[in-house]
Amino acid sequence: MVKKKISYIALKEIISDLLVNLSAGWFGVIFIVPNFSGLNNITEFAILTFDLIMAILCLLISYLFKTSK
User: Fold this and answer.
1) Model pTM?
2) Closest-CA residue to 58 (of 29, 26, 28)
3) What is the pLDDT along the chain (69 residues), one digit of tens a residue?
4) Which residue ranges make up each domain of the chain?
């Protein structure tokens, strides 16, 4: 049985691309949730703030993976 190793660089690329896609999903949720939820203003604001923070965090971590050597 042959063991294949995934290189560290390839793994960083995969994680970075995954985080970019997750960030796109979080930004999509920011536009979809207010249109289809019947939540009150405070709850909706908290959810939208959380979604925005997660989207920016995913983009930031992805950028750090892409720029690290």
Assistant:
1) 0.78
2) 26
3) 556 677 888 889 999 999 999 999 999 988 887 777 776 788 888 888 999 999 999 999 999 999 986
4) 12-67
